[in-house]
## 1
Amino acid sequence: MAQNASMEEFEALLNESFEIDTPAEGSVVKGRVIAVEAGQAIIDVGYKMEGRVDLKEFANPGEPAEIAVGDEVEVFLDRVENARGEAVISREKARREEAWDRLEKAYAEEQRVEGAIFGRVKGGFTVDLGGAVAFLPGSQVDVRPVRDAGPLMGLKQPFQILKMDRRRGNIVVSRRAILEESRAEQRAEIIAKLTEGDAVDGVVKNITEYGAFVDLGGVDGLLHVTDMAWRRVNHPSEILSIGETVKVQVIKINKETHRISLGMKQLQDDPWDAVEAKFPMGTVHKGRVTNITDYGAFVELEPGVEGLVHVSEMSWTKKNVHPGKIVSTSQEVDVMVLEIDTAKRRVSLGLKQTMRNPWEVFAETHPAGTEVEGEVKNITEFGLFIGLDNDIDGMVHLSDLSWDQRGEDAIQDYRKGDMVKAVVTEVDVDKERISLSVKALGGDPFAEAVGGVKRGSIITVTVTAIEEGGIEVEYEGMKSFIRRSDLSRDRAEQRPERFQVGDHIDVRVTNIDNKSRRLGLSIKAREIAEEKEAVEQYGSSDSGASLGDILGAALKGDDD
C-alpha cells in the first residue's frame, strides 16, 4: 500500500512538472546558451529541450553577432520537437514579437523609436526597429529631397511611427517628422531671441522671383523684393547672390507661423524725406525711364524716387499713341515736376511741358493771313486736315474750299497725300485749333467786285439767263438774280421775256450780302429812285404839273 501511494505521488509530481515547465508552442521562452558551433548557438530551453539558432539572428544589421556560452536569451518556440528530437526555436521571431509589443506601446504614446535604415525598396527604404521591419517612404527621409541616402544607411537614429498594423505586419515610419520637430524647436528658440526692428546678419539661401530667403542662423526669413531697395528692383538677382552675407532688419515676426519678414531698405535713409526739397514743382530734371505701361511711363529721378508721366502729359500732338511709341525703357528724358504727394509717395511728371506748346509757336510765327503748305492727312465730312510744322494739323472747313462750288462738291477734288496751299485764318491756342482757308489764297472775288459798290448805287449788269421767275445777271463776274416783281415799276412790264441774254441794263443795288455773296438788284427800285429825283428837281406833286410833263422835262434836260 505504501508503495502504491509513493507511485501516485511521483506521478502527480511528474504531471505538475509537465504543466509548469513545458512551454506552449508559439510563445516566447527563456533559454541558456550551452554551446556555439558551426555558426549556430545551441540553446537549452528547459525540460531537457534544446534547439539551434543561426548566429546571424543575434546580430544587428551590419554588425557581428555577440553571443557566448552561458548567455540567457529569449527565443520563439515554433515546435517542441522535430524529426531529430530537437526543439524548433527562433531568435528573430522572438525579437519580432518583443519589438511589436514595444512598438505598439510607443505608437500609442506617440513616442520616438530607434532604428537603422538597412535596405532600399521601391518608393523608399526598409528600417530595422530592433526586430521589426518598417517602411520609410522616400518623402519622409528628410525635409528636402535626398539624392544620396548612402550616408544614412546603417546608422541608428530616431523615427516616428506614422502607421502600424500588426495583423498585416505593416509599419510606416518617418525620419522627416523628427527633423521638422527638431527644426521647429530650434526655430522657436531663435525666434524667441529676435525682436522686430533688430538689425541682424544673414546668408542668402535661395532666390525667387518675388524675393530671397535669408538664413539667420537656423531659421529662414523672407526678404521681399519690394523691401530690398528704395528703387525699383525687377528681380532680386540684380542686387543679391546665393551665399552672400547681408545685413537685414527684422520687420515682422509671426509667432504662430514662425514666419519672419525682413528688409534691407529700412536700414537706409528714405529718399522720399527730401523729395519736396530736391524736386520742387515746376522744375525740370533729367530722369531714366524704368517702366512703360498703357497709361504712361515711370521715370526714376534718383534711386528710390520714381514719378509717373501720364500718357496725357507725354506729347502735345500724339494724343492716342501708346507711351512705348514715344519713349523706351532706360531712355534718359527731361521731365517737369507737376505734382508731389509725399504721403502716397507719388510724383506726377510731364514730358511735353519741357517743350514749347507748338500751337503757341505756330501762332507767333504764322499770324492770320500767312500762307502755308502741307499734306492732306485726313478727309472728313466737314473738311480737310492739313499737316503743318511740329506735327500739328490745321483744318480747312468745307465752306473755305471754294468761292464758287459747294463745299461738298469741292472736297471731291482732294485726296490724302495731296500737297495743298492755304491761308491761316485763325489760331486758337487753348483749344489747339488752327483754321485754314484754301479759297482765300486768291483773295475774295466778291469783295473785289463790289469794293466800290454801296447800297443805293446804280450799276450796269449783263443779262445771262431768262427764267420764269426773273432774270439772272452778272456784274464783274458775280452772278445775281432779279425777281420778276423787281423787273419794272409797271406791273405790265414785269415780264422776263422782254429781256434777252446779253442785254445791258441799269439796276439799283438794294442789298449787299457778304455771307451769301449776293447782290440784291432791282430795276423797279431804280425807276422809283429816278422818279423821285425828277420830282424833286422839276416840280412837286402839288404844282399841278403832270408826271408825264415832269418826266418829259427831265428827259429833255438830259438831251440838252
## 2
Amino acid sequence: MASDADVIVVGAGLAGLVATYELTRAGRSVLLVEQENADNLGGQAHWSLGGLFLVDSPEQRRLGVRDSYELALRDWNSSAAFDRPETDHWPRRWAQAYVAFAAGEKRSYLRDLGMRFMPFVGWAERGGGTASSHGNSVPRFHFGWGTGPEIVRVFAERVREAERAGLVRIRYRHRVDELLTSDGVAHGVSGSVLAPSAERRGVASAREVVGEFEHHAQAVVVTSGGIGGNQELVRRNWPSWLGRKPESMLTGVPAHVDGRMLDIGERAGASVVNRDRMWHYTEGITNWDPVWPGHGIRILPGPSSMWLDATGERLPAPYFPGFDNMGTLRHILGTGYDYTWFLLDQRILEKEFALSGSEQNPDLTDKSPRKLLSRVRKGAPGPVEAFKRHGVDFVVRDNLRDLVAGMNELTGESLLDFTAVRERVAARDAEMHRSYGKDMQVSAIRAARGFISDRAIRIATPHGLLDSGNGPLIAVRLRLLTRKTLGGLETNLDSQVMRPDGSAFDGLYAAGEVAGFGGGGVHGYNALEGTFLGGCVFSGRNAGRALARDLA
C-alpha cells in the first residue's frame, strides 16, 4: 500500500496550517485535504478578531499590568472548573502546558513568523465577582495587527512555499467520510470529491458528490473544527448544566463548521470526551449583510450598557457586559426567553461598542493607521454605525418612552412596561451621579477606567442614560450566538488521539477545535478569551513537531 505523503492533514483551517508548517519545515511531505474551496484557506480563523491570550507580555508590562504564569494558571483552573476525573486528565495537563506557552514562547514564536501586536491590551471575561471565581484577574487579550487574516497569512504563506517546493499537495473539495485503519493503526482517509464551488469565503457550498478518493500516509492529523455551524448537533449535545435548550440562536461560524469528523473519529475507535462543553455568546445581533445562513455577529461591549432581560428586569451582578459569558448565558436561559436588551446612548455606542470579526474591524484587518485614528475621533466606528442604521435588532429614539414602545414593537410582545423600565434606569443614573454607591456595575465601570487602555479607548465617562447631551437613546436586542466547541477528540500532549481504554491511537492525531483546542477540552467549562486561536496554534504545533520527530 503506497503512501501519498508522510502525513495527511484533514482540514485547512489554522490548526491544519500550523501542523503542516511544522511538518514541512522538518522536511516531511503533507497531503492537505479540505472540503471547501481555495478561498476558504484558513477556515474559521479568517473571520476572527485575532485576539490572543498572552501572559506577562511586554505590552502588559508597558501598561503597568503585573501578570505571571502562576496567576494565569490559577485563573484558568478557576474558570475551567475541571471536575471529571477520567475525561479531564489530559485537559488539565494541556491547561498547564498552554498557559506556560502563553507566558513563554508563544509571542516570540508568532513574531518570528511576522505577527505583530497592538500596544493596547483588552480585558475580556472580567470575571464572576471574586478572586477565586471565573475570569481574568488582569487584562490579557492582545490584538493581533491584521486580525484573523494576518495570523492565517503567516502560516499560509509558508505552506504555499512548501507547496511550491513539492512538500505539500492540497486537495480542495475533498470531504473525508472515513478514517482508514489496519491492525489498530490509522493509515489514511477516504471520502467524496465534491463538485467544484466558486462561492466566496464563508458562503455555504453545495454538497453534490462527483467522485471518490482514498489516500494513504504514515499518519493522519484531524484539524476539521467544531460543531458551531450545525445547530442540530449543538442542540443534541446541549449541556444539561446550562438548563433548557434555546429555541432560537444565531450562527456565529460558517456552515462548513459541521462537526462531522467527531463521529467519524469515534467510529474509527477514537475517544470523544466532554461533548456537552461549549461556548456560545449572549450578545449576538443579526448580521444585516450576511455571508452564511443565520449569520450573527457578536458585540464586544464595554461595561456601561444597562442589561435587561426580555421582561425588563435588570440582569443581576455579576452579569454585566464582558464579565462572565457562561454565567450570563445560564441566567438568560433561566428567564424562559432567548433574547435580552442593552440600553445605552450614542455616547456609549461611540466609545464602547466594537464588533467581533475581521470584516467588522477594517482598520485593524487592513493594518491601516489612518483608519485606526477614526476610533478616537467623534462618531461611532463605521461598521457599528452601519449596524445601528440597518440592523434589525437596533431601536433608536429620542426619549425613553418612545424607546420602550419601539422595543415592544420590534419583538411583537408587550413585555416591557415603561414605568418599570424608567424606575430602573433612574435608579442606576442616580448612582452614576454619586462618588460612592452600592450599584456593583457602576463600581465596576469606575474601577475599569483605572486601566489606561480602557480609559483611553474603551470605556465612556460615567453618566446617566437620561442625562441630556449624550445623543439618542439606543436599545439593542441581543440574541444567543453559537460559536465554539470546548470538547472533542481526546489527545495527549503530542496531540495524539487517545482510545476509550486510555491507550494512544497509533497514527492518529488531532488539533484545534475538533480536539477541544487540546486534550479534548483544555478550557473545561469556561474560556478566558483570546485562547481559541492560540489553542489552534499550540495544538497544531505540538502535532506537527511530534510527527516530525517520530515518523520513520
## 3
Amino acid sequence: MSEISEPQRGRIDPEYDHRRADGVDEAALETLLSEYAIGRDDHENAPAFVIRPDDVQAVIRLLRDDAGFDHLSCLTPQQYEDRYESILHMTKYDRRTHEVTLIVPLPTADPVCESAEPVFRTADWHEREAYDLVGIEYAGHPDLRRILLPESWQGHPLALDYDQDKPQVVSYTEHANPLAADHRVTESDTMLLNIGPHHPATHGVLHLETVLDGESVVDVDLDIGYLHRCEEQMCQNGTYRHQIIPYSNRWDYTANLPNEWAVARAIEDIADIEVPAYAQVLRTMATEFGRMLGHFLAVSTFALDVYGDFTAIFQYGMRDREVVQDILEDLTGQRMMFYFFRLGGVCWDLPEPRAAFVEKCRDFLDELPAKVDEYHDLLTGNEIFQIRSIDTGVLEPAVAKEYGCTGPVVRGSGIDYDIRRDDPYGYYDALEWDVVTEDGCDNYARVLVRLREVEESAKIIEQCLDLLEDWPADERTVQSNVPRTLKPDAGTETYRAVESAKGELGIYIRADGSNSPARFKIRSPCFHNLSALPEMAEGEYVADLIASLGSLDIVLGSVDR
C-alpha cells in the first residue's frame, strides 16, 4: 500500500482538547493507540484517531480485544480534492456512549486500504459499498465487487469526478441458456435456486442466489440494490433546514418517524441546535407510535411467511396498524410520509381539540393489552408457528455482533442493546420503560421481542400523554428559534444514531461551511441485519430460509437507500 504523505494528513489537530470526559477514557485510548496513531481529529460524537491504511486490522483488533470495542457500527467512505478517507465508527454493545472514530487517509492516485473484514464480518458489505459508490479498494477483502449497482456500471456515483450525464449501458446476454454445459458441474449433488427478486416472501426486490443440497441450504448469496436511489447523494444536494428530513421517510417507510429523528439528531448536533423539552415529549410519543407501525407489520407479514395465514394474523395486524395510522394522521397531517420533525423540534402541537386526540390515543392504549393477547393466542401459541420458528434461523450472540446486528434481531439473541437507553436522546431517560431481550436466538425469539416492545411503547406513550396534558399552556414550545439558513462550520463532523423499529439507524455528516452537507452517510439497520442471513440459513431447509428472512423484518428501501 502507498504511504500517506504529510499534506494528506490535513485533518490532524495538534491543539486537540479532551472534551468528552464523561464518555470514553481518551487518555487510555491515546496510550493504547500510541504505536499506530499518526494524528488526531475532533468529531462531535467521539475522539478520532488518524491511522495508516495498512494498520487497520491491527488497530481494530486491538480496540476490540483490549478495550472492548466490539461493535463496528459504520464505515464511511468519502473523497476530498487531495485524498480519500475511509472512516470507521466503533462503539461497544455494553457501553454505547464509549465511541471512537478511526480515520484512514488514502492517496487520490491509489486509494487502497487494508480490509477490516477479517476482524469484523460486517465490514464485508460496508467495504463493497464503499468500493461501489466512492471507488476505494480494500486489500484482503474476500469478495470485493459492486453491491448496489450492476457489475457493468461505469464509475463511482459519489466520487468527485463522476459524470452524472454519461449514459450507462447495463450489459446482459439475451436469451442465454442458464443450463448450458459450462454452467453445470458434473455429478454435482447441489443445485442453484433463484429466489426473487420478485418473490412475495422477499419483502421487496431481493434476489437470493441459493445453493441447495436436496432441500437443505448450503449457501446463500444476497443480491441487493434493485431499489438503490443514491439517497446519500440526494441528501448532499439538499439544504439542512428543510430539504433532507423528507427524504428519510422513504428509507424504512413502514416505521419512518425514527428516520426523521436520526437526521434531525445529526444536524442538530453539528449546528448546535437545542430542542425544547415539550418538543422532545412530542417527538418521543410520535416515534413510539411509529415503532408500533413497524412491529405490527413485521409480525403480520411474518405470519404470512411461515404458514400463509392471511385471514387471521395479517388482518389483525393491519387492523391495529390502521388505528395507529389514524392517530398519526391526526397528529402529523400525513398518513405515510409524515414529515413531522423539524430541526429544533416538531412542526406543530397536538391537534385541536386536544382532549379528543388524547382520548383517542388512550382508547387505543386501553384496548392494546387484549389485542396483544390475541397475537399470542393466534401466533406465538400456535403449534404450527412454533414448529416453523423455534430453533430455526438461529443467530448466536457472537455472530450477531460480528455482523453489526441491532434492534429486535440482536435483542432476540439476548444482547441488551438499545440506543434509547444506552445513548439517551429525546425524553426517554426521564420515562419508565424496559429494554426487551429474549435468549432464544431464533425466529421465535425475534417475534416475542417485537410483541413485548409494542407493550413497552405503550408504556412510553402513556407517560408522554400524561406530560402533555399537564404541561403549562404558556410553556408548550414546539420548536426552538432556528436560523432560516444553516451553515455549520467547515470540517465539523458527527455520527449520531437513534433506535428505529429495525435497530440502529445512524447518520454521518461532514459540513463544509455551506448550507448543504459535503458528505451524508446513512447507516441502515436493515443492511446489517440482512447481511447475517447466510449465517442463519446454512444447513437449514428452504422453508426455514424464508422464515429467517421474514424474522429480520427488512425493508429494501432501507437496505438499498
